[in-house]
């Protein structure tokens, strides 16, 4: 990816044009500098009308379907629709051939459709030049290694596992007394990003969180958290899908990983692949659909890696999984309409989500209030390990909102992450 975004960045060209090396003096301030340019020079956030959305596959459509409530939305997910936008009485999103056949039945009311194959693209390979502030897989990897090298007394990098295509899923660990995969008894917090490929802002927020914590390591509160907590940051949980989404010359609106399915289609929805009411409501059994749950729970190397990560670290107490876009903070259950059975946990979920919502300006709610979706990673993490797990649907008006959004989104969400660190030692202390 080219880092020569704007004329005002030419002084930083030597830094950004080459891959980051371990000795580079990278910082949060430097990363934000590429975004701090005069407003007149910033390309506006892309505002895609439904007639100009770039299409990924033949046979796909952008559709709008009537859906009066979360139960109707759940049925559409089960039919394989990739719900992108929700309004009062309808939803819009992508539908492939199988889903289009379902939508033609009397069970659904199709309002409109636009063939994805006929939609305009117009982007260069990798991230488009206007979005070059976003980090691809190599740049993310290099940045994590640079942060660890610069802060080697408290930070280390290790792989939590490999993807379908053999890429490592890299984790930055911040701990004053343990490195790499060494065990720790300190209370842990885990921040995970970008398990849905097209949600690139969900990589930038945890990546910038890592840089911010290193920059502010000597602040009194941050110093305390680094000394007393075990902090893990995996910015890019689905590297294969991310690379596919940006490499072809147009954004692909691609959601899944890159597994080859039984029908030769590609991809499993990683956030439907966890063993939490797996493939019941709100997931599709059709391999070519965007919400395909996989042939079995934990069929995918990426979800397996996250599973092993949690199971090996029972000290983890809090967790955020970053997604986009809806400006929401969600807590379990997502796969069931019921509240979590433990009243104390419910209180903690509501309290912590509410406090983080104040800091971000997002809405906090139970995940299943939006729609029921089973196989969810945060549902599984809470049920299997007791971690208080939150899904952040980041802000924006699309999956590709432009580079100008990163600065504000990072600032707001770093405040929320720091709040989560403040309660990780005892998530119940303020309820």
Structure description:
α10 (343-360) links the parallel β10 (328-331) and β11. The protein contains twelve helices and twelve strands. The protein has 431 residues and is an alpha/beta fold. It has two domains: 7-38 and 124-247 and 293-424, Zn peptidases (Aminopeptidase, 3-Layer(aba) Sandwich); 48-121, Alpha-Beta Plaits (2-Layer Sandwich). Strands 5-6-8-7-9-12-10-11 form an eight-stranded mixed sheet, with helices on both faces. Strands 2-3-1-4 form a four-stranded antiparallel sheet. It has helices spanning 13-17, 28-33, 70-78, 97-103, 137-150, 201-215, 220-228, 239-247, 301-311, 343-360, 377-385, 406-424; strands at 61-66, 82-86, 90-95, 110-115, 155-162, 168-174, 188-193, 230-234, 316-324, 328-331, 363-366, 388-394. α5 (137-150) runs parallel beside α6 (201-215) and α6 packs across α12 (406-424).
Give a brief outline of the structure.
This protein has 431 residues and is an alpha/beta fold. It is built from twelve helices and twelve strands.
Give the helix/strand layout:
Elements: H1 13-17, H2 28-33, E1 61-66, H3 70-78, E2 82-86, E3 90-95, H4 97-103, E4 110-115, H5 137-150, E5 155-162, E6 168-174, E7 188-193, H6 201-215, H7 220-228, E8 230-234, H8 239-247, H9 301-311, E9 316-324, E10 328-331, H10 343-360, E11 363-366, H11 377-385, E12 388-394, H12 406-424
Helix pairs in contact: 5-6, 6-12, 9-11, 10-12
The number of strands is 12
Low-confidence stretches: 1-23, 37-56, 119-125
What is the strand arrangement across the widest sheet? 5-6-8-7-9-12-10-11
Overall tally of structural domains: 2
C-alpha Rg (nearest Å): 21 Å
The H-level CATH homologous superfamily of the largest domain, spelled out, is Zn peptidases
Shape: globular
Strand content: 15-25%
N-to-C series of helices and strands: HHEHEEHEHEEEHHEHHEEHEHEH
Question: Structural class, from helix and strand content?
Answer: alpha/beta
CATH class of the largest domain: Alpha Beta
Determine the mean pLDDT: 87
- Helix content estimate: 25-40%
Through-space gap between termini: 46 Å
Output the CATH topology of the largest domain: Aminopeptidase
């Amino acid at each position: 990816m080219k880092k020569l975004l704007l004329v005002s960045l030419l002084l930083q060209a030597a830094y950004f044009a080459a891959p980051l090396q371990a000795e580079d003096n990278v910082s949060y301030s430097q990363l934000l500098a590429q975004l701090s340019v005069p407003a007149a020079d910033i390309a506006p956030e892309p505002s895609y009308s439904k007639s100009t959305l770039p299409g990924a596959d033949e046979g796909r459509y952008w559709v709008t379907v009537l859906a009066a409530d979360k139960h109707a939305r759940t049925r559409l997910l089960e039919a394989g629709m990739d719900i992108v936008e929700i309004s009062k009485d309808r939803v819009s999103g992508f539908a492939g051939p199988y889903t289009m056949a379902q939508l033609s039945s009397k069970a659904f009311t199709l309002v409109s459709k636009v063939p994805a194959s006929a939609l305009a693209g117009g982007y260069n390979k990798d991230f488009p030049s206007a979005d070059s502030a976003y980090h691809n897989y190599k740049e993310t990897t290099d940045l994590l290694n640079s942060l660890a090298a610069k802060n080697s007394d408290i930070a280390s990098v290790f792989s939590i596992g490999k993807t379908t295509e053999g890429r490592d899923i890299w984790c930055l660990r911040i701990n004053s007394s343990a490195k790499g995969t060494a065990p720790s008894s300190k209370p842990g917090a885990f921040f995970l990003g970008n398990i849905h490929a097209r949600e690139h802002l969900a990589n930038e927020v945890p990546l910038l969180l890592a840089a911010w914590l290193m920059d502010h390591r000597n602040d009194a509160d941050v110093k305390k958290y680094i000394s007393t907590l075990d902090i893990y940051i995996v910015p890019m949980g689905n590297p294969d899908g991310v690379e596919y989404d940006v490499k072809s010359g147009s954004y692909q609106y691609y959601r899944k990983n890159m597994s080859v399915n039984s029908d030769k289609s590609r991809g499993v929805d990683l956030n439907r692949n966890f063993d939490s009411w797996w493939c019941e409501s709100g997931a599709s059994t059709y391999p070519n659909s965007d919400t395909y749950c996989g042939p079995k729970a934990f069929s995918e190397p990426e979800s397996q890696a996250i599973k092993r990560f949690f199971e090996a670290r029972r000290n983890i107490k809090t967790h955020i999984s970053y997604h986009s876009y809806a400006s929401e903070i969600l807590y379990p259950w997502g796969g069931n309409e019921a509240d979590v059975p433990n009243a104390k946990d419910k209180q903690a979920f509501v309290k912590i989500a509410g406090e983080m919502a104040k800091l971000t300006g997002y809405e906090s709610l139970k995940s299943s209030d939006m729609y029921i979706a089973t196989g969810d990673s945060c549902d599984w993490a809470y049920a299997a390990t007791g971690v208080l797990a939150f899904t952040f649907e980041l802000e924006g008006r699309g999956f590709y909102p432009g580079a100008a959004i990163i600065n504000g989104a990072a600032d707001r969400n770093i405040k929320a992450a720091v709040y989560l660190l403040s309660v990780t030692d005892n998530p119940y202390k303020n309820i």
